[in-house]
């Protein structure tokens, strides 16, 4: 029987609504095209956010001969505008898979790592490479790893521990996982523990006579697992057809992230309602200097489940492990399990708020929901995912958006990318964020603009700043993650210009909170973290 949303979650949604106007489509703000070019069919957008809030996005685009290039653009103004970073486009070369991650804790060390695979037209040459670009000067880059293969690369993913390095990292590590088609399909891993200078550790994680395809990689660490590990998830499917379902597997490094990997575990075999019906896995892991209640790292794998095997009703399900650093102790959870056809999940971890985030494509409603499990990394209520917004996309013309979500270290709020479709059915890479208050297709104009709370996280006094564009009375409310009202304040006779409110949070519990400023039926809402 399909899961029914808990009443408490519904109450929360009634209170926390990102609606404008009279309740039509919720919006963060306006969708911002990363690069709109009528001659480019943009696909497979990837996202990473640097320590300073700079945002890097990469997408592929086939040319007239169906050779795929990789276009990278970046934003220095929180996603308002995007400028070219680098283009991988070579005649006769097809870049088929790629992923990116930004590293560095200051401007001088800021780098963008790209991992990708390519094939050459006219021969069987395939290769995997990892390039390191200087984050402030994209033309300055080095090729740090190259490997020619006899098999075709089917999926690739990259991750780094730069925010909280492993005990074997100097100054940080870069890990890459990829699936390769061959006589025996394989899942392979390569890692650098010296900041990407050399990739001296390579391992074969798994092999099969069936088919491997999509892969996902995440770095995990806690107080008791301070040495850190990389965690992976991948799919094994019946055929290479996009609609084919199969099994979801997971594994991790044994003890250190430059170790070999433990034997793979078939996750969907743990639930009779999932066996052989799954695809498109994504993994996220806790990474901070805190232990969960099991003195370990929390890990979560999400995927699509074809409910009846008919292809008409996919759900976003998953498995979580509270002992991920030392034991395979996985338990099923449901993120979205209703009658809508929900596909293409992506999950991420918020180290400031200590909880997991998820986005996916509701292809029935043509929306991109953003949901949070607010019970921190202990996942006390694993099936209760609170809907922050039912859609951050304004344009509902979507076929294969493949949404991605990342946390901005500056705002501790989410950034989102996805693919929309233009009138010619060409893809357009799009951006929006919790902290973005500009863009196109914004719908009814709000009286508010540029609302922000700082510092974030906050330990003592939070300042809420907003611009008022018409004179009005304003109501300010703050809720905790359960929907409980912490503050309810009426502000009268606000004049046009900047409004400032200060909130003392010294007696508040650590965790995630939401503030909303509203007037009549217009509302500006955002998220912040209290951390003493």
Straight-line distance between termini: 43 Å
Mass-distribution shape: globular
Query: How much of the sequence is in beta strands?
Result: over 45%
The Rg value, from CA coordinates, equals 22 Å
Number of strands: 35
- What is the mean predicted local confidence, pLDDT? 86
Largest sheet: 4 strands, antiparallel
Classify the helix fraction into a percent range.
under 10%
Strand order of the largest sheet: 1-28-27-26
* Uncertain residue segments: 1-27, 439-450
Main features:
1 helix; mainly beta; 532 residues; disordered N terminus; four-stranded antiparallel β-sheet
What's the topology here?
Elements: H1 7-15, E1 32-33, E2 43-49, E3 55-62, E4 68-75, E5 83-88, E6 93-103, E7 111-120, E8 126-134, E9 137-149, E10 153-160, E11 174-180, E12 185-192, E13 201-208, E14 211-220, E15 229-237, E16 246-252, E17 265-266, E18 278-285, E19 299-306, E20 314-321, E21 330-336, E22 342-350, E23 355-362, E24 370-373, E25 386-389, E26 404-408, E27 413-421, E28 427-433, E29 448-454, E30 461-468, E31 472-480, E32 485-494, E33 497-504, E34 511-519, E35 522-530
Antiparallel strand pairs: 1-28, 2-3, 3-4, 4-5, 6-7, 7-8, 8-9, 10-11, 11-12, 12-13, 14-15, 15-16, 16-17, 18-19, 19-20, 20-21, 22-23, 23-24, 24-25, 26-27, 27-28, 29-30, 30-33, 31-32, 31-34, 34-35
